[in-house]
Amino acid sequence: MTIHIGAEPGQIAETVLLPGDPYRAKWAAETFLKDVECVNQVRGMLGFTGTWNGHRVTIHGSGMGMPSLSIYANELITSYNAQTLIRIGSCGGMQKSVNVRDVIIAMTATSISTPSRGIFKEINFAPCADYGLLRAAADAAVARGTPTHVGGIYSSDVFYDERPDLNEQMIRHGILGVEMEAAELYNLAARHGRRALAVLTVSDHLITHEALPSEDREKTFGDMVEIALEAAFA
Ligand SMILES: Nc1nc2c(nc(Br)n2[C@@H]2O[C@H](CO)[C@@H](O)[C@H]2O)c(=O)[nH]1
């Protein structure tokens, strides 16, 4: 048991999927896992452990934003020995070539600040995905016929951004999408020698201003869960 996770030792699997929304964690666990057990309800940040194709998997909410993700990823790594952590989430599209419903496999995660800035100081560390997970996820996505993009994303600290110049520079440099969690997940995985990846579905678009209808979000989210599971155990 930790400050924010009520699970007993052994109740969390070495492979953890991290959606931002705890209710998506519940839906994904009930939809894709067998022998599902709720292992955390502290502060409503639900976590579930079960099996997929005979493999133990935990699906646990991370909350929105890097400070929240940092709390859960730190405790999952240091107190429950999580070895593979895959963020499954959604993002805003930032390139005309990226369409709503597409999947983005995040190779790198650019930010202007993360909770690790106190450690890095003047170091401009490059948060990047585990290559094996990245390759397996890209292969799984393409095999499903899902339009897939592999490249850099932007992990922002704000949803209602008052800095249009930031997005302009990210778009100019080929950043595929914006979300709010992956950079710190990659920082923590590098620090603790773990595997991490972010698999994102594009649910809104910063250029076209299109947004995915809520009923489509569940289908595309399901695709991402399966891609992440196939990559984790490839
Ligand atoms: N900053 C930002 N975050 C986004 C966006 N679209 C999505 Br889905 N997100 C993600 O969704 C949540 C905010 O709605 C955060 O957890 C982000 O990771 C967007 O256009 N901008």
Summed up:
The protein is of the alpha/beta class.
Would you mind describing this structure in some detail?
The chain is an alpha/beta fold. Helices cover 34% and strands 27% of the residues. Strand 3 and strand 4 form a beta hairpin. Helix 2 runs parallel beside helix 6 and helix 4 crosses helix 7. The longest helix is centred in the C-terminal third of the chain and has 19 residues. The site of 8-bromoguanosine has 15 residues, from strand 5, strand 8 and strand 9. 8-bromoguanosine binds next to strand 5, strand 8 and strand 9.
Shape: globular
Number of helices: 7
Taking all Cα atoms into account, the compactness measure Rg is 16 Å
Number of E-state strands: 9
Q: Any low-confidence stretches, pLDDT <50, length ≥5?
A: none
* Mean pLDDT over the full residue set: 96
Report helical residue fraction: 25-40%
Q: What quaternary form is this?
A: single chain
Attached small molecules: 8-bromoguanosine
- Mind describing the biggest β-sheet? 5 strands, mixed, barrel
Element order: H for helix, E for strand: EHEEEHEEHHEHEHEH
Which secondary-structure class do the elements indicate?
alpha/beta
